[in-house]
Amino acid sequence: MENRPAVVAVGRTKFGEHYGKEPEKLIEEAWLVASNECGIERKDLEACYISDCFLPITNKLGLEEGFLSELTELHVPMETTRSSSAALSTACHAIQAGVYNTVLVGGIEKMTDRWDKIRDDLMLLEDPWSYYAGGTPESNHELLLRAYIKKHNIMGENLEKLNVALAQVSVKNHANATKNKYAQYQRAITINQVLDARKTAHKPLGLYDFAPISDGASALILTSEKAAKKLCDNPVYVLACASATDYLNYTAREDLSHFVAAEIAMKNATQMAKTALSEIHVIEVNDQSTMMELVSLEDLGFFEPGTAWKSIYESHLNGKNSYETKSGRLHVNTNGGLKADGNPFGATGGAQVFEVYRQLKGQAGERQIISIDNSSPKIGCVSEFEGFGTKAYVTILGEKKE
Amino acid sequence: MSSEPIERRVSYLGDRLRASRCQSCGKEYFEVRDYCSNCGRKSYGKMDSDDLFYDKGKLELCTFVNEPTNKFVKLSSFVYGIVSFHGGKIRVPARLTDQLISDSKDVDLTSLEGREVVPRFRRRYSVGKNDVVPTISLAFTLADEYYPHQEYSVVAPSKEYEVPGVVGYGVYISKFRIKEAGLERAVPFIDEDSVTAAVEAGKLALIQSGVDSGLIGKIYVGSESNPYSVKPIASKVAQVLKLGEEDGDVQGVDAVDTEFACKAATSMFKDACSLVSYPRSGVKYAMAIGADNSQAAPKGCPGGELDTFVGYGGAAFIFGKNDVIAEVEGWYSCTSDTPDFWRRDGEPFPMHGGRFTGDPAYFKHIRKATCKIMERFKLKASDISYFVPHQPNPQFPVRIAKELGFRDEQCSPALMINKFGNTYSGCVPAGLASVLDIAKPEELILVGSYGSGAGSDAYLLRTTSQLADKQKRQRVNVKFQAENPFIEYVDYTTYRRLKLGM
Predict the structure, then answer these.
(1) Predicted-complex ipTM score
(2) The whole model's pTM is what?
(3) Gap from A215 CA to chain B (nearest CA, Å)
(4) What domains appear along chain B, each with residue ranges and CATH number?
């Protein structure tokens, strides 16, 4: 591919509850981290792509571009999307088309300002008919699990292992977050805590299976290949951006046991990046629930459908923080995932890219993954959803292969 | 805040569970579609409309919701899942209703999966007091419990009568009851109200009569607990039950709500008969429904004396001249301005005149109307098989029956007050239905309704030979609902909570 866009700097805020900060303050904070890193000033920006899912509802901010313009004192083109991956993808297309050289891909969300109503908003936007029938943001994840169990005929001892595997996802993500100063929950949890929460609720998934609601912002600075090379020696290129779409009404989908959109997006992304799964050892997936991490790993091709739980269960037995897949060892959600790092919708994808960027650059500190050859990983992957598997985005980042 | 056009569209689709089917490939869709994605452009305009309203579904997957979204908080906890229809061709999200879950440990989710379920027309969720009341049929109950699945098939009429009469009827009583001092009363589930009871009763009447809903030219709904001061229940019933000729999303039917305390529905029986008899009306059938979530202030508050007797339910009667099961021989109505029971606009509960509701009100009017009609037809009490009086409490109907010379066995089959409570507008219609459930051909039935305010309608009905046939067509008859093994009893506190609704 000609003119690969590259991420030259990343920034983010801590995720969590930011009672005292307006959305503007959060994006500024994230921007400053990125800007300091590469020395790009706001006046260097030729366009801004900003993502937020709820801001008009949660903070009564309708024209997000307007407040960003006021904040940056820029009059450049700005566009709003719902997720960081969507913003990144749109920005990449513009750079590849040669329209811009340097753009900002920002993400922002402030959910806790509306904590009392956010579940209604979320569910109504995500799947209106399910909302009308009484569905909650959690219930579709539980139905996904039920559908998975039924489809793959998992029972008895295997079902117990699957349940522990799902708990392990959460335990692993919390453990990773203890090494991430930006994470919402920087504390470890145990398998029993996860299992007990389910027992108390008498539900297939419990409190510790779900990502929280969060405030936060992320900022990525994206440039053309030429510009990137001037800024640094080995830029992190966006090797592929792919997406796919599925029906809004989950019940109307053909297969309820996984997300076909993620499968399609990954297939297209690996093709676009000319990358084999075996080259990917670090990945950030959208674990809105532990079930979503499990099923994503299958949809992205790292495991055969109905089998990911086995390897995750093994990792629990071995006390490992990574999974053994058919294409090698895979480190998933090294930042703590949505579960422990936090999930401010519009900024979530930015934080995922932030993490993969740090890993590829060897800047992940305590979380750093070391390949067999003692170097940092070369290729990383980010998978993000909008809605309940309604939109799936896959971004592949890494070294440019000639 | 509400958004009425959206509300209208969601109700239009969701109340009836409207669906579409492609004529070429047979693919089915929940919601109305103009074309099929398999067949593309060539299927445009070639989609059959269908609905799942009278269908039976299967609960494919389910989970437990114990932290509902804000609008469902009053349900506290419920089973939520996915229901499939037509062998999996259509799947919809689903809430199981009519389940009071005190301890979620009692719910075995896996044993519920695979069970057959029936869609029920209910309130969708809570809204503000100024908002449109949202409804939906994505609420389901298990088909092998209180409310079984019944098919609705139109039966071509075989006989035309000289005199109009009852062609079919249906009574709907909720699954929940409160039992106090030997008196059982029906309690609505929290998502039920007079509107949902009216629709359920009308649905059961259509099923039993086999009348084509498209031929019903008029619908009257009598109630004193309409959730709206302005907006008819009848329009909802007409749309959901597709009464009258369907043209786009408008039904070719005249729909009107009536109000006269407990005789709001029985008053219209004669109007329905007259309408179907008028040669130029073009109305083949008319439906009259009485439905109430009978209101009463809580015990211990002013007006709270009523809280010992009020029930919940609805009854629907279809009148016409074809395949009549009970001919309406005649009627007599009387009215006086007697303020024995009333509810001022904006007040949640009615007030009553204490002892004044007896002799100068209930007894005077029923006595007048029934005696007049018996005189006119030169009948003695012994000539009549059944007497159906209004039943505001267990004592009044027994006393008036005795006074008019009826023996116990002539009156007791109609007394549903001890089983369902006073269902206000639905009370006499339900009593009449319970008599029709057991009557034989060529029997005379005397009805004496009463409405506070005050007035009474007396009707004389004569059953026909076609009654037996239609009795068999209704499984969910009065006895079925009165003696159902799945009835659930609740305590007073729960009863008040359920009665106040979502």
Answers:
(1) 0.95
(2) 0.95
(3) 21
(4) 4-17+52-142 (2.40.50), 160-500 (3.40.47.10)
